[in-house]
Amino acid sequence: MRQNLVAGNWKMNLDYQAGLALVSEITNMVADEATGPQAPQVVICPPFPFLAGVGKLLPAGGRFHLGAQNCHQQESGPYTGEVSARMLQSVGCEYVILGHSERRQYFREDDALLSQKVKAALAAGLQPIFCVGESLDTREADETFDFIGGQLENGLFHLSNEEFDRVVIAYEPIWAIGTGRTATSQQAQDVHAFIRERLARAYDAQAALNTTILYGGSANAQNARELFAQPDVDGGLIGGASLKSRDFTEIIKSFS
Ligand code: PGA
């Protein structure tokens, strides 16, 4: 179901103690302030070793949810160093980020592999937050829509309607991630509207309307309100600003 949502992607930052301190600050600040019909769901995505501990600090049954940053495509087996979707589910995860551009770039994850990871995540009862986004070269060559259309088609469109129902999409232009260079709200809106159109063609109009689509890439406490005010932007996938309790809380409050 489409909903306002803010996810914090901690990436490979902090240590366990600092992570617990951060999540306590966030839950305390948000408990007091961010209520109302537009108040978003909040997903905290710490590194694997922090998951169980962070999960214990999230108020149960409320708007906070636990998410991971990756999972393996197999259910179990001889894959030293890897973590399965079912393991994540067993420590309380409800979401998993898949297809982040850093994983695509540094770990060579391609659409074919990601399509398997999405399947594995859904089979374990997790909701994938599936990332798409173009490089600066692709944007300057005016190929953004084709490129993102391809990522959606190859990574997601093998899913049935029922499966697709549980997918969240994050549009993250690579040139905006960690660079301080945010997409304008119009650039974000244009791509989000395009994504919804592609979903309507691949599934149906209702599925397109029901999909939560997040923006990510240098979103912060200053620009979140304008981004989230766009008709097809349902929230954000936040990197750097999710590591500061005050900034992240401000972003959570940026829905009107
Ligand atoms: P950023 O990262 O907010 O630091 O740009 C976003 C992301 O990579 O998910």
How is the secondary structure organized here?
Blueprint: E1 5-9, H1 16-33, E2 41-45, H2 51-57, E3 64-68, H3 85-90, E4 93-98, H4 101-106, H5 111-123, E5 127-132, H6 136-140, H7 144-156, H8 161-164, E6 168-171, H9 185-202, H10 205-210, E7 213-216, H11 224-228, E8 235-238, H12 245-252
Parallel strand pairs: 1-2, 1-8, 2-3, 3-4, 4-5, 5-6, 6-7, 7-8
Helix pairs in contact: 1-12, 5-7, 7-9
Residues 9, 172, 177-178, 216-219, 237-241 line the site of 2-phosphoglycolic acid.
Folded structure, characterized:
The chain has 256 residues and is α/β, with parallel strands linked by helices. The protein is built from twelve helices and eight strands. The chain has helices spanning 16-33, 51-57, 85-90, 101-106, 111-123, 136-140, 144-156, 161-164, 185-202, 205-210, 224-228, 245-252; strands spanning 5-9, 41-45, 64-68, 93-98, 127-132, 168-171, 213-216, 235-238. Helix 3 links the parallel strand 3 and strand 4. The mean pLDDT is 96. The longest helix is centred in the first third of the chain and has 18 residues, at 16-33. The protein has an eight-stranded parallel β-barrel with strand order 1-2-3-4-5-6-7-8, surrounded by five helices. The structure holds 2-phosphoglycolic acid. The site of 2-phosphoglycolic acid has 13 residues, from strand 8.
